[in-house]
């Protein structure tokens, strides 16, 4: 239990007089809007700036492994378990020394016996450390995160940043620290790897704190929820759905107490009695402190607790995404007919005989392992890639709204969001053009003080909102979305799901967030699941829930093995 600590970063207060209690063997989900201090809290725990007992080893997964000549498997085992590597090296050194002495005069019988005893001790140590099973265990973890046998033998420097992040995650799972801290671990995973990680962490016996905006992930993995709200950490038992009920109850109580206090204060002000008003404020502070004491199971209110604020209205955070109603088009809007594609410098990759189409109202989820060609398929649909064979048919005047994993490349960093939007869409109506652009940015949840700041100063989530605003202003007929949730918080993902559900144009989605896919592809009549694997694109004969169920059966069998 760490009591009464405050945290500020870059002059912004994140936590004020907060308390945290983390118990052994529990799996915590850490919630809160973007930019409110979740990642900072994990770093403070990892750096032990928030006191952590010395006997507890802490590991935060936040950076990709450094690329070098070590294979993915070596990086997972060798770099992760330093003690194991040290003992193995000692064994190798003793064996080399013994082989060098073969055939020479053995004058020092005692030294030879000592070396033999030392080797026996080291072998026993390796056995206790599970040396024989180390590589197979690491290989199993890497396979679960999407690494084939061939990939496990490749040097880490040959992998992209996203795959190196997976190696970092594999190392952490292999080491099994007493306190494991994960910051958005699903961002670099495909759907299958996310489901595997859920299943693996459900069996985690040690302590876990995870920041994630993936609702299904939190529901499956977490046994406790910590909600960072109003500069405090609030604890709820159960998974994310259970915490929602608890948060709603707290919201109701906070607003009720605020209304009572305001009514009493107004009555006191009408009498003009200043002493009565001050007494009322002191009583309200004391009541709030007493309530805080109950949650800590204390018997009395101390002086520090009595300094809490008087009741205030619940500070809500809400976002509403909106994509305008597109004009109707005669089908088909967009078709790939017997399309094949390969990259000139990648002989190991090819998509063949792709035959798909999108109409108004069609909602498609593209699923399959990372590297199979999901993003390539989106690029072919968008027209960013030209097929090697086959035909692409697009309706004239078709407007496509595109969200890419690498959306930052589209932004002009020295411009403000307002400048950027008005340069690309100068034809704003109604209010002044600047006010119209700011109103749209506000709807997508970008705080007003960021509207006129250079884009380079925005966080990943804030930049994402600028891109979504731009997409909305283009009035698209089809939305092509590649991992749109990666930089969004929970409220924004809900808002995106609501907006896509209402959108009457075509939607093609690549996402590892199964809740978002379920919302977008819930209507069986207009929804399709395209599976990209083994160089082909096929239509899955069932719903997304059917596809997910099939994956889960495979994964449970693997983890149980």
From TrEMBL:
Q: Alphabetically list the UniProt keywords.
A: ATP-binding, Coiled coil, Hydrolase, Nucleotide-binding, Repeat
Organism whose genome encodes this protein: Medicago truncatula (Barrel medic)
* Residue ranges the record marks as coiled coil: 251-278
Q: What is the lineage of its organism?
A: Eukaryota, Viridiplantae, Streptophyta, Embryophyta, Tracheophyta
List, alphabetically, the InterPro entries matched.
AAA+_ATPase, ABC_transporter-like_ATP-bd, ABC_transporter-like_CS, ABCF, P-loop_NTPase
Q: What is this protein called?
A: ABC transporter F family-like protein
Q: List the PROSITE patterns.
A: ABC_TRANSPORTER_1, ABC_TRANSPORTER_2
The gene coding this protein = 25484026
> Start and end of every ABC transporter domain?
2-255, 334-559
Query: Could you say which enzyme class this protein belongs to?
Result: hydrolase
Gene Ontology MF annotations: ATP binding; ATP hydrolysis activity
Pfam families cross-referenced by the UniProt entry: ABC_tran
